[in-house]
Amino acid sequence: MTTKFSKSTLWFLGGAFLVYAVLEILLSTGVLNSFWNTIIRIGGVMAIVSIGLNLIYGFNGQFSLGQWGFYAIGAYAAADVTYRWQINKSADGMVVLLLATVLSGIAILWLRKKLAGVRGLDPLSAFTIYLASTIILSFIAWWIGTAITPFVTNALNLLPAPVAMQLVFVVGVVFSSILAAEVSFLFGLPILSLGSDYFGIATLGFSIIIKILLDNSDTLLGFTEMKGARGMVGIPKETSLFWVFFFLIIVIVITRNLLRSSYGRAVISVREDEIAAKAMGIDIAEYKILAFVLGSFFAGLAGGLYAHINGFLHPNTFNFIKSFDPMIIIVFGGLGSISGTVFAAFAWALILEGVLRLFLPQGFETWRFVVYPILLLITMLLRPKGIFGDFEIPFLRQVLPPVRQKSETPANDSPVEARS
Fold first, then answer.
1. DSSP element (H, E) containing 90
2. In this predicted structure, what is the pLDDT of residue 397?
3. Nearest to 218 by CA among 80, 358, 311, 108
4. CB-CB contact of 315 with 230 (8 Å)
5. From CA 83, how far away is CA 74, in angstroms rounded?
6. Which of 14, 164, 242, 418 lies at 20 to 30 Å from 140 by C-alpha?
7. Residue 413's pLDDT is what?
8. How wide is the angle at C-alpha 210 spanned by C-alphas 206 and 216, nearest 5°?
9. Consecutive sets of 10 residues in the chain, 420 residues long: mean pLDDT of each?
10. Is the pTM above the cut of 0.85?
11. What is the reported pLDDT for 80?
């Protein structure tokens, strides 16, 4: 069976590969130094987390300020996995995270199927059941993980050191994303019934809670390697340009395919009019949770990649002021536009962290936080819908069904008359 790619798909994949190849050549020849390499990777990471928020807010209409909290969960979870392997020479972090997310995921899926048939179950009661089962299974995962960690560690030591490090890194990044998605599911159960404004306040509170927990991660949570408010150091710098582009393409393709499916059309219908969508038989809560969980998964993925760029994490990186960055990016690029989000994310990194930092006079570097909002304000005045508005590149553009041709038979003619 052969798979036939459309012309737009070939153009997209070819263009993405060409951009990646050009950047690799410029970096390897020294035309772009390590500073610009870091800026480009940060731009790719911001594109991933912003696409997740665009899915929640731009396509589903849920005003969320909690994206940065899930970004932090992904960052610290992935960093803890690779730190334990790099410094402690142990796979215990990877094994426990993998078992905990897999067991919790299976339990959530099973409970969701069983609880769907229970009539009159309110969201808080469902949340309690999900939370209790997740906590119990996490302890079971820790108990099993401590028993099998020596075997996994010995198996990884049989591999070449770079290969083992890359394997631990990829597993850590992927399963930290799943952890962020599962936390978002638990958190979303009781609050997704709130109105958009109240939902935004609740998610902002979640981000603040996560930041406070990270400030006390060494004492309150018991993760001494995270060092709490002092910041976590010693994280392997494994996020290469290849991994950023690879995961960015995966996220774009997943989002595009979702929005083209019946699930995606239901997600968008909730944004347009919840009452009309419900009247058409669409489960509002189901599609809100779908968009929220998938968007949070992307945030966790971006966080895991970010943690391994500079090799250092600090809770202040995830404060509530920084949580507005993805929101600014999706509004700047265009709500409901994947193309605009990717463009705005790279523009945000290149202008704010690159061009303005380099070209402002010495001692005036912090003025970039004044210049950038002015540029944003001018853009909003001239382009209220964002730079791209509703525009998408052909690969991402919605394919509408052909318009049905009107019958030439007059409406008032009977079938008998039409046949005669």
1. none
2. 78
3. 80
4. no
5. 14
6. 164
7. 52
8. 145
9. 72 92 93 91 95 92 89 95 92 93 93 83 86 92 93 93 94 96 92 79 91 90 88 92 96 93 90 87 89 95 95 90 86 89 92 79 70 79 83 78 56 49
10. yes
11. 94
Cα 168 from Cα 162, distance rounded (Å): 10
E-assigned strand segments in 228-379: none
Residues, the chain, total?
Answer: 420
The whole-number pLDDT of residue 190 equals 86
Alpha-carbon distance 260 to 296, whole Å?
20
Joined tokens for residue 219 = 């004492």
Cα angle, residue 18 at apex, residues 13 and 22 outer, rounded to 5°: 155
Listing DSSP states for 195-241 in one string gives: -HHHHHHHHHHHHHHHHHHHHTTTTTS--GGG-GGG-B--------H
Token pair in block for residue 323: 């949580």
- Given a contact cutoff of 8 angstroms between Cβ atoms, the answer to whether 94 and 250 are in contact is no
313 in helix, strand or coil?
A: strand
Using an 8 Å Cβ cutoff, are 99 and 144 in contact? Answer: yes
pLDDT reported for residue 150: 93
Comparing CA positions, the residue from 233, 229, 247, 344 lying closest to residue 304 is: 247
- For the record, the structure tokens of 25 come out as 């050549």
Nearby residues of 166 by Cβ (< 8 Å), 6 or more positions away:
238
DSSP 56: I
- Residue 1's pLDDT is 47
What's at 332, amino acid-wise? F
Identify the burial level of 106 via C-beta atoms within 10 angstroms of its C-beta, where 0-12 means exposed, 13-18 middle and 19 or more buried: exposed
pLDDT of 65 reads 87
Please enumerate in sequence order all residues whose Cβ is within 8 A of that of 311, keeping only pairs 6 or more positions apart, or say none. Answer: 233, 234, 235, 236, 237
Positive or negative, the CA dihedral 354, 359, 362, 365 is negative
Which of 50, 85, 95 has the alpha carbon at shortest distance from 163? 85
Give residue for tokens 């009452």: 275
Quick one: tokens of 189? 């159960």
User: Shortest CA distance to 66 belongs to which of 212, 258, 254, 205?
Assistant: 205
Neighbours of 253 (CB within 10 A): 15
Query: In this structure, what token pair is assigned to residue 401?
Result: 């069904």
**Rg over CA atoms, the chain:** 24
